[in-house]
Amino acid sequence: MAEFVGAIDQGTTSTRFVVFDAAGRIRGQAQKEHRQIFPRPGWVEHDPDEIWENTVEVVETGLADAGIAVSDLAAVGITNQRETTVLWDRVTGEPLANAIVWQDTRTDAICAELAADGGQDRFRRQTGLPLATYFSGPKVRWLLDEMALRQAAERGRVAFGTIDSWLTWKLTGRHLTDPTNASRTLLYDLAADAWDSGLADAIGVPEAVLPEIVDSVGVGETCRGPLEGVPLAAMLGDQQAALFGQACFQPGEAKNTYGTGNFLLLNTGDAPVASTAGLITTVACRIDGEVTYALEGAVAVTGSLVQWLRDNLGIIRTASEVEELASQVPDTGDVYFVPAFSGLFAPHWRSDARGVIVGMTRYTDRRHIARAALEATAFQTMEVLDAMARDSGTTLTELRVDGGMTRNEMLMQFQADVLGIDVVRPAVTETTALGAAYAAGLAVGLWKDRDEVRRLWAEDRRWTPRIGDTEREHLAARWAQAVERSLGWA
Fold first, then answer.
1. Residue 436 needs a FRET pair 20 to 30 A away by CA distance; which of 55, 221, 292, 462 works?
2. Helix 366-392 / helix 409-419 crossing angle, nearest 10 deg
3. What burial class does residue 65 get, using C-beta atoms within 10 Å of its C-beta: 0-12 exposed, 13-18 middle, 19+ buried?
4. Region class of 24: left (phi > 0), else alpha (psi between -120 and 50), else beta
């Protein structure tokens, strides 16, 4: 059989195609950015057609980079930005509007209206989620109402999907999703592992628009277009794919992905764990009908804050310069940066929070602001990990990390310092794509089981804490003061 597997990694800022061999090594890849569309303050959109066109291009370029043909692929997996919402016409296949991105806050009024009857946790028992602009269901309602599509939706003409569904439609003609993406909509019942008509009715989403839910891992449809003849064998939301790619298959194992935002997931096994500390209960994967659950803490702005330093402030020319600039000072000079550009996600869930930089004096310069921006990523992760320990009763001894920001060694050391545990980077840091590839390869027998996949995982670098409890507690207290300023600004 063919001994390569492909992964489509459709993210917030770009689309990639990565080819892996049977040893889990990258053999070829391609990547292309797409436009970030900001029609109004708080609105973030993507063009679904542009995402599809970029997908076709990176598949073709990635195969060429690997030096293989489409027929050499045993399978392909899709991993995707999750809550981003697309509506398209079932007859023409054309998108009906730009996609509303997970960062978008335009549904704040809808969420407030829904929360008026039962509060922010109105649907948490069934969905594991708070009412927040982050999730897809309110975005669907907004599009149906604002685009005058409700009647067409009720007649079955309109299809809704997260990006996995959109790409699957384009590749196979089927309207599908998996539980890792369905569980991010506020329309899916965790215990029932199914769409819930009561939730759909309460939020205002006709069931006719919803895709069929299939296993995250399993041989499905055969692709057409740029992947003609290749089995589509895996669909996983990006953070669940990263958990899979980090080989966190056992309860109590956790990973943190550092990308546009940060996403920390803890495997909780075959039972959902209800959060009382501001986390999300979600699906980690479904294989052969068996669901594995996770606790998740999402941070909206981490890597995108470095882009903001570059694009909005102009204090760096490239993102890679931020570590060199921040390393020129031993600390932030007591400056703290809370980047609540889209409100604050876990564990606060406050869409009204606003970004603040506090503690500045005449002594402060761009180096301190750069360092404070990096440290903000570590502090926000610290808050999520603390909440995770309270909810799960699990005390981690290490945190596996991945994503582009893990190349920043100053940040990784500071992360270990404020967490007080080891931070471990794997040999392959592109674990989102790797997880989709592992899942697809398992489905077609390229790897026998998850134990074999675990043996492929390898450590690259480990950071251990260098500060004591007293200093760690002082830093955490000062961060908490800065967060209070952010929450109180509105």
1. 462
2. 40
3. middle
4. left
